Amino acid sequence: MKPKHHTTIRRSSRRGAALLVALLVMAATSMVLVSVLDTQTMQFKALNNTLDYDRARYMAEAGMAHSLSILEIDITFRGTVTQTDFPVGSGNGYQAIVQDGGGSAVLITATGTAGKFTRSVTANIKHGG
Q1: Does residue 87 have a cis bond before it (omega within 30 degrees)?
Q2: What is the DSSP letter of 128?
Q3: pLDDT of 3 higher than 60
Q4: pLDDT (tens digit, 9 = 90+) per residue, 69-93?
Q5: How far apart are the first and last CA of the chain?
Q6: Nearest of 123, 117, 127 to residue 63 by alpha carbon
Q7: What is the structure's pLDDT at 10?
Q8: What is the pLDDT of residues 12-23, one digit of tens each?
Q9: Beta carbons of 86 and 62 less than 8 angstroms apart
Q10: What is the band of 5 on the pLDDT scale with cuts at 50, 70, 90?
Q11: For 103-123, what is each residue's pLDDT tens digit?
């Protein structure tokens, strides 16, 4: 008959090994999870930058359209289309400068801002033939 002492030692060492394996699996799973979340966060920030970059261009084009609509009403207009937020309170906006471009041309420079990006669009419009 075997003494009970050896059986107790084997069981406790097995339990310790199972605990160690479980901890190692949890640590590996945690590292993979942190890595995936970090990658997703970086991709989300890159996507937001792309959206703001494109949105700034759209804002500049809105400033150009606003300037052209003013010129349709009054072709002699020269001046500044003041900073306009769109939508109101969003921090995204545009402004434009309308000036003589030489001859019968009109030079329009519109600037759009979204997030940390600023983009400009320039058009030289000739009117009257």
Answers
A1: yes
A2: -
A3: no
A4: 999 999 899 999 998 898 888 889 9
A5: 115
A6: 123
A7: 62
A8: 666 678 888 899
A9: yes
A10: low
A11: 889 999 999 999 999 999 999
CA-to-CA separations, 110 to 57, 84, 93, 113, 115, in angstroms, rounded: 10, 11, 11, 10, 17
Q: Round to whole Å and give the CA distance between 77 and 97.
A: 10
Q: How many domains does the chain have?
A: 1
Q: Is the pLDDT of residue 129 over 90?
A: no
Q: What is the CA radius of gyration of the chain?
A: 33
Domain extent for 20: 4-126
Residue 69's pLDDT is: 95
Chain-centre distance for alpha carbon 18: 46
Q: Which H, E and C letters describe the chain, residue by residue? A: CCCHHHHHHHHHHHHHHHHHHHHHHHHHHHHHHHHHHHHHHHHHHHHHHHHHHHHHHHHHHHHHHHHHHHHHHCCCCCEEEEEEECCCCCCCEEEEEEEEEECCEEEEEEEEEECCEEEEEEEEEECCC
CA 81 to chain centre: 26
Q: What is the spatial distance between Cα 67 and Cα 98, in angstroms, rounded to a whole number?
A: 7
